[in-house]
Amino acid sequence: MHIFKKLVSMLKRSRNFGVALFLGAALVLNAAPIYAQPTLAELRAVLKRDPDNRQARWALSRMAYQAQHYEVARYHVMQLLKNSPSQADVNTLSRALAKINSEDPWRFRLSFALRPSDNIRRYTYNDRFETALGIFTPSGAGQEQSGIGSTIGASLSYRFNLENAAELTVIGRIDHSVFDSGDLNSTRLFLAARHERFSVGRKTIIEPFLRFRLDHDFALERRDVGLNAAVNLFHKGGHQLRFSSVIENRSYLDEDALSGPYGRLDLRYDRVLDVKTRLGVGLSVARSLPRGDHLKYWEGRLSIDASRHFDKIGTLGLFGRYTNRQYDGLFPATDLFRADGTIAVGVSYQPKHIKIFGARPKLTCQIERNASNVSLYDYKANDCGFTFHRSF
């Protein structure tokens, strides 16, 4: 009786009977339904036509929870939180999310990537390197070095429920990269504690982190300490605006000239054009201040990406970016202040009906061209990548 009194109270306060009914059901996720339940196929059909249908999305989340498909249930509750009309709805959905997290706080994820490239070192394709001391020929006679790199990764996280519609996630991740050229091999470790909080039309994220990189002999070569912060603003009609920043201190154990602080500000806009089409635009500004004067730089980047889902074949994507980097000091042995401009364009494809060990592979290919006034870094590269992700 206590549960139904709460439900009736919510119905009285709500302006929308249907929304209150489904949100009130968050209090009784495992209780027997008090209305005729639609089928899973019917709910999916409704959301396919109208992704903003809150009643159908909540019912699908509830159905997934009862079937112990907790990650699916969590996804749909998170979608509802993005466009909650009131703080009362946010609080109710947060309690439902806390219940899901308490049932399934752990998440384990495996990933694998295969990345062939015709220029794995990003060196020059010019034959000559002009300096104030004369003309030199770069190592390898100025030719690109092709190769294939692969990365195997695993991550483990645990979620804690907090008050005020917030949660804390502790994250650990390891990635190991292997290339044809052994000196490019590396292992990366990432540790973080992510605090997330929802409010009406907004999600804030604060994430302090530690990052370590080991060289091909598994000796520690780099250690970073930093903080990520972000604010996501959600608007009706599929609009999303994200402000984010990162501040970190990079320490290179064997190359002190590379060590120093780094910071970046990002602005990104995402728009759901229709049920199957998405568009995103990003802008960022970064500043790096290593100890070596000729290595300090300002960087600006503009990026755009779009994707379209096709029922029979899967999802196709297009992306492009332009990066401009200006260095502060004279490049060694030259009278040049290094300046780079990088253009990259590419396509991606994720098939709908192909799965490998339960994961759908994604193919990405890009063409990259870096124009630099220092010939050693004036390069071109053609890359492709096959990536797989599987969560448990």
Automatic annotation (TrEMBL):
Alphabetical list of Pfam families matching this protein: SlipAM
Domain of life: Bacteria
Domain named Surface lipoprotein assembly modifier C-terminal: residues: 318-392
Xref: InterPro entries: Slam_C, TPR-like_helical_dom_sf
Gene3D superfamilies found in the cross-reference section: Tetratricopeptide repeat domain
Protein name: Surface lipoprotein assembly modifier C-terminal domain-containing protein
